[in-house]
Amino acid sequence: MGAAAGMFDEGALSSWDDYPVHQTSEFIRHVATSDRNFYDRYYFNLHGSSDELFAIFGIGMYPNLGVKDAFLAVTAKGKQRIVRASAELDDRMDISVGPIRVEIIEPLQKLRVVCEPNEHNVAMDVTWTAAVPAVEEPRQYLRSKGKVVFDTQRFAQLGKWEGSITTGDDTSEVTPDRWSGSRDRSWGVRPVGEKEPDGIRLEESTMGGMWNYCPILFDDHAILYMCHEENNGNRPLQEGRLIWSDPAKPTEWLGEPMWQHTTIPGSRLLSGSVIRFSDSDIEITAKPLITNFISVGTGYGIDADWRHGMYQGPSVVQGLEYDVDEVKGLAQYGVVDSVGEFTYDSKTGYGLYEHGFFGAFEKLGLSDRGDLFS
């Protein structure tokens, strides 16, 4: 008997269907939910454990929007240069968009990320090797007025980089003795694509309150600190974990994270933090070294004309260049990523110092979405 009319989508087959990875009765091209906001994304950052250069890059796929996109954003010498690309999504096994691609050399251990030389004077060819095992992060699940706005799963990992990166007229040789970074793989549902009508959620922040995320690499271990705290004190997501470089040693739960931030008056930016954990004597002092304002130009939500998953046409590549001081006034209202220096017990490590304040957060004097620290 032939397939029932309307049940078979000719053209749904892709190279992934030749692998035993199916999770539903659908082809791999079709995810289990029809939610337009389903996404599947790579995020990476790269730094020299210093204030000289900070690069952030990623690729995302949006099966229900038929789009894939990528970006490379490099901050150095007061400039932020961006290459971004968007294309129609075909085979999800092709992890490339425009000049940017990810090659999985050994899953969970070694990856290569390339941005081919282009007219926008930003290029890169770097290989990432894991320094600690990958760890599963807590699932993020948020509803707003009945609608699921976040239902995501991620894993995080820290590692070392090797290769080269060019921005403007400068090329940096990237060596694993001091060039490191973190990455995450995330997938699920979060706001993507063209902005949806707010309706009853007009005055609601999608992820209101304070967001902190700090994956930190030390000599023989890493620490993962994460805290999403809403204005009323509720914490939908938090994490405090120590991950040993030796995979034979189990990760250690450090307890509930506690934070103490030093704010920069007249901004929504931080100049430093002290991080503690309820079940550990570890007390980490953190300070930012160089900041990459990824909320502008890369698709993370501030730009009306370029958001992750937004259809830009069959194939588009663009380049942008900003003065960091000119964009931070707007970008501080989104997620802010810095290279952080972290110290505790005579140990010094480096990693991502990420924060965002969305809407009100009265613990630090923010009474509405437009307030700045006093």
Write the layout of secondary structure elements.
Elements: E1 38-47, E2 54-62, E3 67-76, E4 79-88, E5 96-97, E6 100-106, E7 110-115, E8 122-130, E9 135-136, E10 140-144, E11 147-167, E12 170-174, E13 180-189, E14 209-217, E15 221-229, E16 237-244, E17 252-253, E18 257-263, E19 270-277, E20 283-292, E21 315-323, H1 324-331, E22 336-344, E23 347-358
Antiparallel strand pairs: 1-2, 1-13, 2-3, 3-4, 4-21, 5-6, 6-7, 7-8, 8-11, 9-11, 10-11, 11-12, 11-13, 14-15, 14-23, 15-16, 16-17, 18-19, 19-20, 20-22, 22-23
Summarize the structure.
By secondary structure, the chain is mainly beta. The protein has one helix spanning 324-331; strands at residues 38-47, 54-62, 67-76, 79-88, 96-97, 100-106, 110-115, 122-130, 135-136, 140-144, 147-167, 170-174, 180-189, 209-217, 221-229, 237-244, 252-253, 257-263, 270-277, 283-292, 315-323, 336-344, 347-358. The chain is built from one helix and 23 strands.
Description:
- The protein has 374 residues and is an all-beta fold.
- It has one domain (36-195, 204-364): Beta Barrel (AttH-like fold), CATH 2.40.370.
- It contains one helix and 23 strands.
- Residues 1-8 have low confidence and may be disordered.
- The chain has one helix at 324-331; strands at 38-47, 54-62, 67-76, 79-88, 96-97, 100-106, 110-115, 122-130, 135-136, 140-144, 147-167, 170-174, 180-189, 209-217, 221-229, 237-244, 252-253, 257-263, 270-277, 283-292, 315-323, 336-344, 347-358.
- The chain starts with 37 loop residues before the first strand and ends in a 16-residue tail after the last strand.
